[in-house]
Amino acid sequence: MARRRPSTPGIDGILLVDKANGPTSHDVVAKVRRIAGQPRIGHGGTLDPFATGLLVLVLGRATRLAALHQGGAKRYEATFSFGGATTTDDLDGELITGATTRATRDQVEELLPRFRGALEQVPPSHSAKRTDGVRAYERARAGEVVNLAPRTVEITRFEVTSWDESHPEEPLMGAQLDVSSGTYIRAIARDLGAAVGSGAHLVALRRIGSGPFNVAQAHPMSAIAEAALAGRLSELLLPLDAGIETIPRVDLNEEATLLLRDGAAISAQLCGAAVESIQIGEQVRLMVADQLAALGRRTDTGVQPERVFITPNATPPGRRHPVEAG
Question: Which of 86, 190, 98, 88 is nearest to 146 (CA)?
Answer without folding.
Answer: 88
